[in-house]
Specification:
The protein is α+β, with helices and mostly antiparallel strands. A hairpin with a 7-residue loop joins strand 2 and strand 3. It starts with a strand and ends with a strand.
């Protein structure tokens, strides 16, 4: 899962680097070229926050990339281990150990970090069409 930046469109404003919670965006400046930004595929988790903030519309999902529409924790499957909470970069997950956790939807950025962290398949998601 990754996004990419079209360096011919990028205005090098830095908003994408600033908004990326995963340090996946870095500035590149080669001799004789204007600066631009690149996304590290190894660090990018496909949350799309950089694309949402890009003023030049230079950032797009790669082929097959899906955006999360909603994220929910199934209380019947959640064992309260806190792996999802520890993985959440926006601190949107709250709860007490050994009890089902919940997601504060008003601050969830729908990045999917919790989905990858959960070992009990308690995170349920829907994708944008």
């Amino acid at each position: 899962m990754a996004y990419s930046i079209d360096k011919t469109v990028c205005v090098a404003c830095g908003a994408c680097e600033f908004t990326c919670l995963f340090n996946a965006v870095t500035q590149v400046q080669n001799a004789g070229e204007k600066p631009y930004y690149e996304i590290n595929r190894e660090k990018c988790i496909g949350c799309g926050q950089c694309s949402d903030i890009c003023i030049a519309s230079a950032i797009a999902p790669e082929a097959g990339q899906k955006r999360l529409q909603s994220v929910h924790i199934n209380a019947e499957k959640c064992i309260g281990c806190s792996l999802c909470q520890r993985a959440c970069p926006s601190h949107a997950i709250q709860g007490v150990i050994k009890q089902p956790f919940t997601i504060r939807h008003e601050i969830c950025i729908k990045c999917g970090a919790c989905l990858r962290a959960c070992k009990k398949d308690a995170i349920e998601v829907t994708y944008l069409p």
